[in-house]
Amino acid sequence: MENEKLVNQEEIKEETVQAEEAKETVADENEENFEQMLEESLGNIQNISVGDKVEGDIINITDSLIFVSLGGKRDAYAEKNDYVNKEGELDLEVGGRISGYVVKISDGETVISKSLVSVNKRVLEEAFEEKIPVQGKVSSIIKGGFNIDINGVRAFCPLSQIDLGVVSETKKYINKVSDFLVIDFQQNGRNIVVSRRKVLEAQRDKLKKETLAKLEEGAIVKGVVTRLTNFGAFIDLGGVDGLLHISEFSWNRIESPNEVLNIGDEVEAKVLKIKGNKISLSMKALQENPFDIAIREINEGDVVNCRVLRNLAFGSFVEIVPGVEGLIPISEMSRGRRISNPSEIVTEGEMVEAQILKIKPNARKISLSLKSLQPDPWDTVCDDLNVGDEINGIIESIASFGVFIKITDGVSGLLPNVKMKPVNLVLTKDNIGEEIQVRIARVDRAEKRISLEPTNMPEQPVKRVENKGDWRKYKQEKSQEVMEDNPFANL
Asked: Residues 282, 294: one domain?
């Protein structure tokens, strides 16, 4: 009996210990579950962000605010006016439930609002303060600009802020989605002004810095024509413009840039110079110099057809082939004819035949002549002129030592002053162009010179030397006569 009692007592004791252990296990599990639920609850509260929809218990209502418990240690408040009805009455009371969207969240406070628009306005206000671009859609055109829809919030974009350049066509922006920068936020979001131009400028400046960092003189670049002027074209190289001067379009002479390029054309050019933000470009530098091509095909003495480009005081510039110019000096315009300006012989734009006199490859100069292709009148005129012949000529020009008389085209003679004095013949510039009769006094075929005299010029008597004492005097007088008889002595 005693043994049975001892067994029963031990079983009862063991059951009691097991029961105590079971209680402790349940308590531990309950504590763990509570801690987990609390942690999850607090975690959910802490993980809310602006724009999230939340719900909580109203714990207090003041004249302007509604205080809400979101669970755990997270409380929030809302503007009372945001929850009143159309009559201005509040249908909520302490202890009731309220829902809304998180407008603002920080360590110190959480603000909720009935409408998501309020959330978006808050986001726009933060974007304004932090200068963060926001995405919006151009919804309509209004006076002075555009209405922009940003997640249900209306904003205004002035016409000058929709693009970088001058806007001539406004309809192309309708329904276009772009990034905008909030440049003004007033009256709690009732007046919001945005700018697309500010965003584009920032993108352009960033791209400009990247492009300038990569550019170097001598580099071959591609770009798009953005603007044409009378002096050249501006090429967008990626955020930075380069100037393609009209002189760098081609080796050929260009009158206007729009002869070669149009806005929007893609071009390839060489970077000639970089000075700060100024970049000089050249398409011509990528083309072979036509002068180098020409001198492989033409030679001195060749006769070429060329176009007169410009008449200057010293001669005429002509185009031998496109991009290759040469000069016809005024002295090579005509044989024997005195001209004061090349326009007396050739006209700009006229095609003329000329002979190449000299090619200077290093200086890249070519000189030509019209005169060399003209017959020399001296080859035949002297055969018909004899000393003592009386001829008619035209007064061509007046010099200090005499008058030049045109005998025929390319041949003139000189009537010296010493020949005119004895007969009291006086000629002035007023007589230029008049016809005059003269007599041939001397013909120098080698030097191509003709001396003339008046037809009434008296003959000089031959002086006799009576004795040797008079010889010296006679020699001096004779020498003086020879000097006076030489019309070219002063030339």
From this structure: no
